[in-house]
Amino acid sequence: MRKPGKGEPTAAEGIVSPNRAGFGFARVDGIEGGVFLPPREMSGLVQGDRVSLSLHKDAQDRWVGTVKSVLERGLSAFLGVVERSGHELRVRAADRRLAIVCNIPHSGTQGAQPGDWVIADIKRYPADGVTGEAWVRKRLDPERPVEMSTEAAIARFDLGQEFSPEVLQEAKRFGSHVDAVEAARRTDLRNVPLVTIDGADARDFDDAVYAERDGEDFRLLVAIADVSHYVRPGTMLDTEARARGTSVYFPNRVLPMLPTALSNHLCSLEPHVDRLCMVADMHVSARGSLKGWRVYPAVMRSAARLTYDAAFALLFTRDPAARAALGPLVDKLEPLVEVYHALLKARSRRGALEFDAPEANFVFSKEEQVRAIEFKSRNEAHKLIEECMVLANVAVAKELKRLHMPALYRVHQPPEQRKLDNLKATLHVLGIELQIPDEIRTRDLAGIAPRVRDAELRPFVETLVVRSLSQAVYQPANIGHFGLALPDYAHFTSPIRRYPDLLVHRALRAGLALAPRESSAEQSALEPIGADLSRLEKRADEADRYVESFLKCVYLRDRIGQTFEGLITTVVEFGCFVQLLGVGADGLLHLTALRDDDYAMTRDGGQWQGRRTGRKFSPGMRVRVMVTSVNPVEGMIDLELAAD
Questions:
Q1: Domain that holds residue 430
Q2: I need a labelling partner for 299 at 20 to 30 A (CA). Which of 56, 109, 167, 422 fits?
Q3: DSSP-assigned states of every residue in 395-429
Q4: Looking at 97, 125, 140, which one is the last position of a domain?
């Protein structure tokens, strides 16, 4: 949609977001803050609906929408609580923002009773004078928050769960062993000691690595599971993988893009068995530059399945017991460390962004209660694999250009000026002055956090920089990757769990004359495919964040009344958001909870300041707060200042 002029009526499409007060907003491209939808326009609409709108300006100079039609429903199922309504049952969405209540026919109750928590499938949407109808899909135990949050996310984001019998049968028809005739056609790397390095709970091993000295330089091999050999265009397997777009990982459950017969076995680079792969065989200089590359199909046999912790102990802390247990193979892994250090130097020279915020890991009891939240930083083994994968992605992107093959690149635009201005204003409140050149470079943003002397404040500044960045997406036009400071980049290294990587493998096979060129792989056809795969990636990320937020809220629900150290992250018109350190969850310190003074927002809009005491609340400020209420379903945490 073109950006409308002031006072100009226009048509648009928007995504609906209801408010529990009855009104709503529509997210419309080109209109910051969204379009207001009065209560009368929200009748029959639910969260995520895509609607056609007629827009006009009201007396407050804000955009207001009139709904013309519903183009696509954004919600097909939801987490709800069963209620009795006269002689009938109905289900009300547990998230009040969804604003939906549906009757349950007798045949659709699944034995649910009033008060039960359920996942409900919408059969008829509410409309003027017509009540919605829903059937109970599954009854849930509210004392099992891991299952409840996962099922709620699956319903909310319409994620695929079970594979059809036809798709499962198609995956199984390849058997459990690599075809010997196919293996004989390929470069034989079975005697090369490639190893996989993954998380302890990983089951789908996409990538294996090996390095060796080549004079002053190095040879680095990155072998990637050859999913494209098995998942061919036009098959049911391909149709299902395309619809999912990506695997989705939850704390205790995975929704794979491909059936486990492929994702966890025949495609997975398991140790000591033959596997088909595509290889980026790279010549790396001592300074970490990519001097040359070849990409080819091969057959390999992983020499070991290492975890990140095991690889760290072997190669970086050089633990004697760990090295002795691995035997002679450990010496063959040493060049990987040298390559890694060379690649780090190259990354530093490029000025690439590098943020290493610890990730939250939940500790559960046998009863699925959240016992603790632990934050674990990536170790050097994580970073070693990351650098190897980045270089392989670069080599493949360059190979696609050499072959003149249309493909989906992983691109990252420079940040918008508006976001840079917001970053500059917030940093100013923190006492950090940011000079932004006319043409911003990655190193200009990468250099901000290291200038912060307060080590405890540095992660917050890194977060501010991340929030200023654009979202990386998939598209056929190669505009480079701003965050990595790379002119050529494509996702190649995870075809088991990312459909864009599978498309890159197909493009390579076609370019290398190993497979016919598909009409769907032409430049014009790839544009909408890239946009949709970017959407599916975002959907998976939102589902993951929903579950993480839900479980953090469950953890805090058992700690209402307790005090926590917090860091103010954002100042808003109704208070400020505070990140609870040690939990990683954001709660709201509402203006009404600041009772020690009469607070007013400063002229720059960046701080709250007491009229009498002069006390300020601003981003980056540490506060002690008490948790007063928690709503896991809505991800809401209310805070007050602690008495001390």
A1: 414-469
A2: 167
A3: HHHHHHHHHT----EEEBPPPPHHHHHHHHHHHHH
A4: 140
